[in-house]
Amino acid sequence: MELNNIEKLLERYFDATATVAEEEMLREYFTKEEVPLHLKKYAPMFQYFSIAKEEKFTRQVPLKPRKKSYMKWISVAAVGILIFGIYFGRSYQEQREAEYAYQETKKALSLLAANLGKGTEKVAYLREFEETKQKIYNKN
Amino acid sequence: MQQTEFLNVVLPFKDKLYRLAKRLLVSKEEAEDATQEILMKLWSKNSMMEGYNNVEAYAMMMTKNFCLDRLKSKQAGNLKLVHSNYRDENVSLQNQVEVSDSLGWVERIMEELPEQQKMVLQLRDVEQYEFEEIAELLGLSATAVRVTLSRARKTVREKLVQKHNYGIK
After folding, report:
1. Which of B128, B130, B132, B151 to mutate to test the interface with A (most CBs of A within 10 A)?
2. 10-residue stretch averages of pLDDT, chain B, 169 residues long
3. Regions of chain A short of the pLDDT cut 70
4. In sequence order, what are the residues at sequence separation of 6 or more whose Cβ sits closer than 8 angstroms to the Cβ of residue A71?
5. What gap in Å lies between CA B121 and CA B135, rounded to an integer?
6. Which residue of A has its CA nearest to B41?
7. A-to-B residue pairs, Cβ atoms closer than 8 angstroms
8. According to the model, what pLDDT value does residue B75 have?
9. What's the angle, vertex CA A15, arms to CA A9 and CA A19, rounded to 5?
């Protein structure tokens, strides 16, 4: 590559106005070709950058399969159902109690009504007695 | 997402995470720990990962934050500075390079840079990120990234020339 061109690119490189492609050209130039003496001082930079890119992460990372999120959602659902059940179970219970109380009251009232009927029947006899007594009084 | 699938997603950029971590933390062990931590964090929320359109950028952001936190934390006092990692790893490189020692200089010079400059230099010159990507990752404007990058490169050049001359004279 032309020396002139390289010098211009270098200038733009240090002003950080070169594009990635242009910087790539510089890197290639400084790692592959013979570099003239006055540019030699730049060579280590570009060479170092290309080498630094070669470094690899070699450690194996232990990745545990995850199940915990599954369990978490199940427990959330269970708690939901439990609360739901308690709420509706209680209202059902209340309804049954009310019904039972109603039935009991009705029974008691009907018992009262029946006894009252019996009472009035007896009172009817009493009236008979009163009439007869009046007749006897009137005769005398 | 299954484990193999996850590894396939992570594979293209896990080295980038490691290199960024190493640039910031210097120590190889620390950087490996950090990368492992990040990968495990990603795995633990991998059901959400499908929602991110750019997992790489997200992972890089996590790495950056993690490493900066690490540097800030008290443990940073115990960080081991390992300077000699690169030498035995890159034997082949020694052959192709005339002055292999000056490569070590570049690395050491980079270690002395402020974190912001380190990261910009790493992301641009090593990983070839675009300015916009770097800007987003570091929460800077594109112009600020440009300025930081220019400053970092010039500092490296200056110090390199200094060391070079010192070696000769």
Report:
1. B128
2. 80 89 87 90 76 80 90 64 51 48 81 89 90 90 92 90 69
3. 1, 65-69
4. none
5. 12
6. A63
7. 88
8. 57
9. 55
**Under an 8 A CB cutoff, do A20 and B154 touch?**
no
Question: Are A57 and B154 inside 8 Å of each other by CB?
Answer: no
What's the first-to-final CA gap in chain A, in angstroms? 161
Q: Which residues of B touch A48 (CB under 8 A)?
A: 103, 106-107
User: In this complex, do A61 and B89 lie within 8 Å of one another by their Cβ atoms?
Assistant: no
| Chain A neighbors of B17, CB-CB under 8 A | 57
pLDDT at site B76: 53
Are domains B1-82 and B95-169 of this chain identical in fold? Answer: no
CATH class of B1-82: mainly alpha
Residues of chain B by 3-state class (helix, strand, coil), percent to 5: 80, 0, 20
Q: Give me the interface pTM, i.e. the ipTM.
A: 0.75
Residues in contact with A18: Cβ distance below 8 Å, sequence separation at least 6, in sequence order: A9, A12, A26
Convert the pLDDT of each residue in A39-67 to its tens digit: 888 888 888 888 888 888 888 877 776 65
List chain B domain ranges. Answer: 1-82, 95-169
Q: Please state which architecture CATH assigns to domain B95-169.
A: Orthogonal Bundle (1.10)
DSSP, collapsed to helix, strand or coil, labels residue B156 as helix
Q: Quick check: B103 and A47 CB within 8 A?
A: yes
Closest-CA distance of chain B to residue A50, Å? 7
**Residue type, position B16, single letter:** K
pLDDT score of B98: 46
Q: CA B84 from chain center: how many Å?
A: 17
Domain map of chain A by residue range? 3-52, 79-140
Measured between beta carbons, which residues in chain B are less than 8 angstroms from residue A14? Answer: 150, 153-154, 157
